[in-house]
């Protein structure tokens, strides 16, 4: 048995009394002890439902107001069309009086609803359409 001790880089192995075929167990130490993180990991399951949806990239849905389920699904499908969203954002009402007010109101309500859906992670009530 060889006496344990600190083995330095310049140690003379011939003075240690080793025999041919002898097994050695060497233990080392880390240069520096690794510090535990100050803040532990946060798991998705531990986040509130709103933050989970936001981090996964889910957008808000629409609240069913009794008989709005078909309209809600239609609006959510329309919201997924990038060209429509772009045109709604850039929509400017015409200055003449020949503009159909119903079409204008529908366009503005759709733009506002899409904007609300983009800002929120909670379900949005489609009140402008009721």
TrEMBL record:
<dbReference type="GO" id="GO:0061136">
    <property type="term" value="P:regulation of proteasomal protein catabolic process"/>
</dbReference>
<keyword id="KW-0833">Ubl conjugation pathway</keyword>
<comment type="similarity">
    <text>Belongs to the peptidase C19 family.</text>
</comment>
<dbReference type="InterPro" id="IPR029071">
    <property type="entry name" value="Ubiquitin-like_domsf"/>
</dbReference>
<dbReference type="GO" id="GO:0070628">
    <property type="term" value="F:proteasome binding"/>
</dbReference>
<dbReference type="GO" id="GO:0043161">
    <property type="term" value="P:proteasome-mediated ubiquitin-dependent protein catabolic process"/>
</dbReference>
<dbReference type="Pfam" id="PF00443">
    <property type="entry name" value="UCH"/>
</dbReference>
<dbReference type="InterPro" id="IPR038765">
    <property type="entry name" value="Papain-like_cys_pep_sf"/>
</dbReference>
<keyword id="KW-0645">Protease</keyword>
<keyword id="KW-0788">Thiol protease</keyword>
<dbReference type="InterPro" id="IPR044635">
    <property type="entry name" value="UBP14-like"/>
</dbReference>
<dbReference type="InterPro" id="IPR028889">
    <property type="entry name" value="USP"/>
</dbReference>
<feature type="domain" description="USP">
    <location>
        <begin position="60"/>
        <end position="130"/>
    </location>
</feature>
<protein>
    <recommendedName>
        <fullName>ubiquitinyl hydrolase 1</fullName>
        <ecNumber>3.4.19.12</ecNumber>
    </recommendedName>
</protein>
<dbReference type="InterPro" id="IPR001394">
    <property type="entry name" value="Peptidase_C19_UCH"/>
</dbReference>
<dbReference type="GO" id="GO:0004843">
    <property type="term" value="F:cysteine-type deubiquitinase activity"/>
</dbReference>
<keyword id="KW-0378">Hydrolase</keyword>
<dbReference type="GO" id="GO:0016579">
    <property type="term" value="P:protein deubiquitination"/>
</dbReference>
<dbReference type="InterPro" id="IPR018200">
    <property type="entry name" value="USP_CS"/>
</dbReference>
């Amino acid at each position: 048995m060889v006496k344990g001790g600190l083995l330095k880089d310049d140690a003379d192995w011939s003075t240690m009394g080793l025999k041919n075929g002898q097994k050695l167990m060497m233990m080392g130490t880390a240069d520096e002890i690794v510090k535990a993180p100050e803040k532990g990991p946060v798991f998705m399951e531990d986040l509130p439902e709103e933050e989970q949806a936001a981090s996964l990239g889910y957008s808000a849905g629409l609240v069913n107001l009794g008989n709005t389920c078909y309209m809600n699904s239609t609006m959510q499908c329309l919201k997924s069309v990038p060209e429509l969203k772009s045109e709604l954002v850039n929509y400017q009402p015409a200055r003449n009086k020949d503009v159909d007010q119903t079409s204008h109101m529908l366009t503005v309500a759709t733009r506002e609803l899409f904007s609300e859906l983009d800002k929120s992670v909670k379900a949005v009530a489609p009140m402008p359409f009721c």
